[in-house]
Structures are given as C-alpha cells and as structure tokens.
Amino acid sequence: MRRLKDKQDATLAIARAAYDTFSEQKHHRSNVQEFEHDLENNLKVIISEIISEDWIPAEYKEKIIYEKKERHLAKAPVHDHVLEATTLYQYEKALYDYTPWFVPAVKPGLGTHAMFRFLRNSLYKESQEENMYYFLIDGHHYFPSIDHKLMINAVVRKIKDGKLRRFCFKIVDSYYRGIPLGIKIAQIYGQIYLAVFDRAAVKFFDIINDTEKMNYWTSRYITARILTAKTQDDYNDLAKGSQYLADKFRTYAEEGLKHYLRFVDGIIVRHKDKAFLHIVLEISIMILERDFHFTVNKDYNIRPTYTGIRIVGYVFYHDHVEVSKANKKKNARRVQKLKKLGYNEEQIRLKMASSLGYIKHANSINLLKKIGMEKTLGKIIKSRRLNIPFEGMSSSDKVLFSEVCHKSNENGSWNKKIQLIDYDIEESKIEKEKITVQVQDSDGNPQSVEKEVAGRVLAIKFKKILNTIENNDGDSIYVFEKLKDADGHDTLIDAEFYAFTGSRILINQAETDFTKADLPCPTVIQEFRSKSGKSFYKFT
C-alpha cells in the first residue's frame, strides 16, 4: 500500500468543517461554548499553528472511569481537539483504509454495527459443522501498553516524511504511557498498530513458506490430533496415517485464516479443527507479546461456537444474536430505577435511547417484555425492521444478499441464477458515506469539503431459476422455485424474493447498464476478488 504524503495546507473551510464534525452534540458544553465565542479567530490561530508547525500538545487532564475495569482517559483542551481534527480531515479515510476490511472498528460508517453484521451474517450462512470452534483474545490495557517506538514505526510505514508524519510523532510523544485514550487519533493508532499482525494472521503467518517452521508445526499438529482424539471421526482420520494429517495441516496453512476478525484489541478466529486452532492461538499470543508488546488477558480458551461468541455486549449464535447477561442486568436496573423516579415509558425511552438502541439490533423482544418496554420500543423496532421495498411482498420473502451471490467453486441444489423482476435504489437507514461539496470560505473563495450523507442501497426483486430448457425455436424456458403450501408441497405459483445490498458496483450497474424496461431478465450476481483479496460483486 502506498504511503500517504502531505496535501495542501489546511484552509479555513477545512477547519470549519472539522470543527462542525467535532462539536456535533457538544454545543452544550461550557468549554465548547467558550471556543465558539471567538470561533473565526480561534480557527485562524489553529490554521497558523498547523502551517508553522509551532503547536505543542497541552498537558492532558487525567480522568479515571470504571467500565468493568479501570480506564484512564486523557482529556485535552478544545483547541487541541479541533487542531487535531483539522490536521486529520484530509487524511482520515486513507488512514482508516490502511487497516484491512475485516478490522471494522471505529471506521466512519462502519464500527460496531459493521462488526455486528459481519460476524452475525458469517455465522448465519455457515453450518456449525463447518466452524465448530473459536477463540477470543483481547489485550490487557491495550492503549496504555502501546509501545511508542513500535507506534512510530507503524506511522513511518504509512505516512511519508512531512508535516503529517511530524504531527503524528508529536501525539505519540505527548503521553507518558502508551497512547492517550480520549482523543480522536488514538482510535486510528489503535487500528494501525496491529495492522501488520492482521495481514500476517490471515496468511497464517506465512508458515507455508518456511520449511523449518512448517515441519515443526506439522509435527505439533499430528501429535495434538493423536492426544486429543475422542470421536469416531478423529479415529478415522488417525487410521489414514500421519501423511494424511500432514496434508490436512498443509491445506489449512495454504487456506490461511478465512474467519479472522479484529475489533480494536479483541481478536476472534474460528475454525472447524480444534487442534489447528490451538496452534493458531499459541502462535498468535507468541507474536503479539514478542513483537507488539501486547499483553493478552488470561481468560482465553478454545470454545465451541454453539455456546455463543461474546463480544461488544452481544452473544452471537448460528441462528440468532442475544444481548449479553451483563448488558441485560445493566439496562433492567436502569429502567427500574427510572420507573421508581416516576418516569413514563416514553420518557424512559428518550433517556435510554442510546442503550436501548444498542440492544434493539439483537433478538431482544423477551428482554423488552421483562423490563416493560415492549409497548413503546417494541413497536418502533418492528416498524424500522419492516422495510419492504416492493408492494405485495412480506418480510418472509427477504433473503440475505450473501445467499443470492454465486461464489467460485460453489456447489449446491440451486446454481444462483435468478430472473431479475424489479429493483429500486434508496437511502440506507444505517450506512453513511462522505461526499465532496463546494463551499465558500470567509473570503468568498470556493473550497472543497467533505460532507456525510446517507449511503445508498440497492433492493432487488427476483425469482430463483432452478433449470433452463431450450425449446425448438431456440428460446429459453425457465423453471422457477415454487411457493409451498401448508404441507410443504410445491404450488403452481412462482416464489418471489427480495434482498438488499450496498455494493457500489451493483448500484452503478443498475444506474448505467440497464433500465427497468429491460426487465425481467436472467442474471447471476457473481462474487469476484480484487488483487488485495477483497470481495466485490457484479451482475454477469
């Protein structure tokens, strides 16, 4: 990946846009109001300091909070926050793009919700037999333990010599223990610090290319399979001989870690082979602690996926997502406290909008019933989820977009060929994207700034083509999947489905390559891989 180089110096328009982003929902704070009293001059001072590089980070005010564990926040003055936001404004997206797509934390428009969808959908479409085990490791006081020298090396790998690099160095050196948690760039640092590890991990640390390492870990794998054999399948594998097990390990090493996911300092890896997963865990901890000074919390273990994967306040299963027990108790206690104080349901909903909005993404109806919020919040959740883009269809007709896409070397009863009946492009209720717009600065000169708007999604209505028959005239006759009756038997009516996707390529195709006048038409949505290994989709 190319390193970033300095762009043009920040302008007043950029500073103003950065301030608007920073101050959103903060205008009630006294220090923000004080800064706004002379906003224009304050922004000009910031621009001057960025250009001259005279700025020196002010001393942080430490604040200790307790969220399961003790956290030390480093509070900076508003001036420093705005200067930091202004400096990063032109580079933020590129800095986030440095981290792989399977590390979605804190990225604008992604974050927790992206991780939630990624893990949920991955578990939904894969059987328990395919991914039976997982481990979750997380760092002990991750941000305070980040090594300054290693962090600077990560900055050097990403940013060319210039003002931006020197600014990043100042931030790293401004705090005595790790990276100051409480400023914007800390989240970026937390992502890029382990980016090298992420890319190495998905390739299984390139062990396949090191004969000595490959021989050692192959031997370890065979020994582990012998010592841990319990099931009939295990004994059948052992009966095939050591060469069979060695070939299986080689296959795993060549495939890499297809089910790797990192959320800040939480790393999840899933695999169907428990013995192989133990080796991945051992190597991961060794490299993290040796090369990144990353202290792993000791509560890690290899667990079956059917017990649920616990992360960011949720428990993920193969068929549903629950709110974690601690999260349930926390919200239930807070609701009861507000009820005792005399608040009604609507008032409670407004006061707990953030917490209740968090739990609504999971299967939380029973929780809402128990805490007495079903009447108010349950209806809102239901109405939000029932986004049906085509008239005459119901929520039961919706399928996951991943189920419609044809992947390479994929086999199944349905070849993923569809007849596209209708489509619609609408605004997303979740996804956001940034666009560049022209605004005027204080002198009336046009300036390009980025603005956040709702992303777009493509809704498609289609039939599943099970078979294609050529008649004597050379025309194609399609056999579609049928609706089922109450007994599960096929009727004479073709089944129709719909799905959503945010794929920009598919949206662009829908806008430029064809129109609704071309419908209905047969097609296959094919999955492709870019040179970087990222998936993208096309109507073929």
Shape, principal axes of CA atoms: globular
Number of strands: 17
Q: What's the rounded overall pLDDT mean?
A: 83
Low-confidence stretches are: 380-385
Percent of residues in beta strands? Answer: 15-25%
Helix content: 40-55%
Biggest beta sheet attributes: 6 strands, antiparallel
* Rg calc: 27 Å
Class of secondary structure makeup = alpha+beta
Quaternary form: single chain
Work out the helix count. 22
Distance between the termini: 30 Å
Key attributes of the depicted protein:
single chain, 540 residues, alpha+beta, six-stranded antiparallel β-sheet
How would you sum up this structure, described in words?
This protein starts with 11 loop residues before the first helix and ends with a strand. It is globular and about 80 Å long. Helix 1 packs across helix 4 (78-88) and helix 12 (211-227) packs across helix 14. The strands form five sheets. Strands 10, 11, 12, 15, 16 and 17 form a six-stranded antiparallel sheet that branches. The protein has a four-stranded antiparallel sheet with strand order 4-5-3-6, with helices on both faces. The model is unreliable at 380-385 (pLDDT under 50). Among the domains are: 12-90 and 147-192, no CATH class; 326-385, no CATH class; 395-539, no CATH class. The protein is α+β, with helices and mostly antiparallel strands. Strand 7 and strand 8 form a beta hairpin. The longest helix is centred in the middle third of the chain and has 18 residues, at 274-291. It contains 22 helices and 17 strands.
